[in-house]
């Protein structure tokens, strides 16, 4: 997570903006009418780091999760409610990989499962902004989302005994984050950090109820951090 935070702060500082002018008492106002339109459009690129949160039936050694960096890309549709509130729809594609290490196995082929997920995400979000301060404006954003996991293997007949780790295709989440809108001469640029938290159990259990891979898991839910760079 700390690397994602550093990426946001670093890129914000390296923006090709007349940064000193952004915080002057009387800066040149860029895109003065940018937020006055009823509908706004844009796109975003970014990074993610997904994790799993496990709940266990018995007090046994935990499953280890090795997290990697993934990427995000998507579109933005924004509806203005008033000066401080905007309703946003941000459909996107999110790719990630998590490697799970199961305790109690000597053979790496049994102990390790690579979980590659490609999510199509459909979030409906409320953006709450402060009053514009020259050419920048902080905001918080939150809402709910539904995701489709294209790599779920939910309908596969094979399970972990054959090397196949299965997850449910449909995931429901809530999201919460913050960021800053920067108004350049030609477009609005917004770096932001967001947490995503699944609310439904995503695990498809093995056919054997006493499976050494899934038998001790009561629930498995996604936790993730997004760093997005938005252009509007």
Automatic annotation (TrEMBL):
Alphabetized Pfam families for the sequence? OMP_b-brl_2 (PF13568)
Q: Which residues form the signal peptide?
A: 1-21
Q: Where does the Outer membrane protein beta-barrel domain start and stop, copy by copy?
A: 27-202
Q: Which UniProt keywords apply?
A: Signal
- Its domain of life? Bacteria
Q: Which InterPro entries match?
A: Beta-barrel_OMP_2
Protein's recorded name: Outer membrane beta-barrel protein
UniProt source species:
Poritiphilus flavus
């Amino acid at each position: 997570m700390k690397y994602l935070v550093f990426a946001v702060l670093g890129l914000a500082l390296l923006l090709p903006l007349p940064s000193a002018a952004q915080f002057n008492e009387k800066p040149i106002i860029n895109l003065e009418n940018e937020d006055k339109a009823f509908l706004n459009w844009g796109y975003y690129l970014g990074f993610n780091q997904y994790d799993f949160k496990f709940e266990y039936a018995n007090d046994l050694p935990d499953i280890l999760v090795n997290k990697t960096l993934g990427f995000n890309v998507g579109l933005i549709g924004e509806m203005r409610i008033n000066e401080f509130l905007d309703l946003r729809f941000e459909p996107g594609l999110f790719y990630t990989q998590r490697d799970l290490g199961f305790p109690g196995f000597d053979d790496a082929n049994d102990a390790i499962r690579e979980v590659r997920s490609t999510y199509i995400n459909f979030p409906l979000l409320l953006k709450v902004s402060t009053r514009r301060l020259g050419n920048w404006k902080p905001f918080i954003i939150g809402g709910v989302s539904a995701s489709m996991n294209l790599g779920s293997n939910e309908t596969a007949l094979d399970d972990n005994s054959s090397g196949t780790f299965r997850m449910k295709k449909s995931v429901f989440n809530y999201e919460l984050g913050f960021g800053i809108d920067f108004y350049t001469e030609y477009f609005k640029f917004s770096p932001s950090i967001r947490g995503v938290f699944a609310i439904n159990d995503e695990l498809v259990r093995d056919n054997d109820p006493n499976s050494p891979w899934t038998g001790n898991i009561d629930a498995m839910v996604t936790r993730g951090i997004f760093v997005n760079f938005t252009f509007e």
